[in-house]
Design brief:
Layout: H1 25-39, E1 47-53, E2 59-65, E3 68-70, E4 73-79, H2 83-90, E5 93-100, E6 105-115, H3 118-127, H4 130-138, H5 148-161, E7 173-187, E8 195-201, E9 207-211
Protein name: Pyridoxine/pyridoxamine 5'-phosphate oxidase
Cofactor: FMN
InterPro entries: Pyridox_Oxase, Pyridox_Oxase_CS, Pyridox_Oxase_N, Pyridoxamine_oxidase_dimer_C, Split_barrel_FMN-bd
Length: about 210
C-alpha cells in the first residue's frame, strides 16, 4: 500500500465572500473563468468533468471541453450514440465540474441536459478542422473495435471519399446544453476552512445563495 497522507498543501491564494459575488452564478462563473485564464497554469481552462448515471446503474465521469456558455447554461458536443449520450437520453440529470488547481478553485454544477438545436450543432461542426470532422464520423464512440489500425484505415478511406468535398455533420453527433439548477463555487483557504458558496435555482427562477461549511 502506498501512503499518500503527507500529500498536502495550504490554500491561500484568494477568498470567496458574500460581499463580492453577483446575484447569479453565470456572472461569477464568467469572472472566475477569465481570472483563471489570465492567471495561467491551466492549459485548457475549459476542460470539465461530465458525470452521468450509466445504463448499468453506475455513475461515470469523463473530461470533455466546454465550448460555450451563456445565461441559459453550458454547451459541450459529443456523439449521441456514445455511452454518455445514451446515459443522458435515459437520465438527463448530470453534473459538471471544473478544477483549476492554479487558482485553488473548483466549480460543481448540477443541471439538466438537453440537445441543442440542429443549427447550433451544424454551426459548431462547420467550424471544426476537417480532421476533427472526419474523426467524429469515423468513430463509433464507446463501441469495441478490433485495433488502432482498424480506426486509422477507416479514417484514410473517409479522407479519400471526402477529398475536396464538404463534410456534413452526422445526425448522431451534436451538442448538449446543460441548464443549471445548482452551482457551487469552492475557493481553497488556509487550514482547510475553504469557502463554499452555493447558488440554488428557485421556483421564480431567481437564485438563492448559501454558505456551506467546508
Amino acid at each position: 500500500m502506498e501512503d499518500l497522507s503527507n500529500y498536502r498543501r495550504s490554500y491561500e491564494k484568494s477568498e470567496l465572500l458574500e460581499s463580492n459575488i453577483p446575484e447569479d452564478p453565470i456572472n461569477l462563473f464568467h469572472r472566475w473563468f477569465h481570472e483563471v485564464e489570465d492567471f495561467g497554469g491551466n492549459e485548457e481552462v475549459n476542460a470539465m468533468t461530465v458525470s452521468t448515471f450509466g445504463l448499468d446503474g453506475f455513475p461515470k465521469a469523463r473530461v470533455v471541453l466546454l465550448k460555450k456558455y451563456n445565461e441559459e447554461g453550458f454547451i459541450f458536443y459529443t456523439n449521441y450514440n456514445s455511452e454518455k449520450g445514451k446515459a443522458i437520453e435515459q437520465n438527463p440529470n448530470v453534473c459538471l465540474s471544473f478544477f483549476w488547481h492554479s487558482a485553488e478553485r473548483q466549480i460543481i454544477i448540477k443541471g439538466i441536459a438537453e440537445k441543442t438545436t440542429e443549427s447550433i450543432s451544424d454551426n459548431y461542426f462547420d467550424s471544426r478542422p476537417d480532421g476533427s470532422k472526419l474523426g467524429a464520423i469515423v468513430s463509433n464512440q464507446s463501441e469495441v473495435i478490433p485495433s488502432r489500425e482498424f480506426l486509422e484505415t477507416n479514417l484514410k478511406e473517409l479522407e479519400i471519399i471526402h477529398d475536396n468535398k464538404s463534410i456534413l455533420r452526422p445526425k448522431h453527433w451534436g451538442g448538449y446544453l446543460v441548464r443549471p439548477v445548482e452551482v457551487e463555487f469552492w475557493q481553497g483557504r488556509a487550514n482547510r476552512l475553504h469557502d463554499r458558496i452555493r447558488y440554488s435555482i428557485q421556483n421564480d427562477y431567481s437564485w438563492k445563495t448559501d454558505r456551506l461549511s467546508p
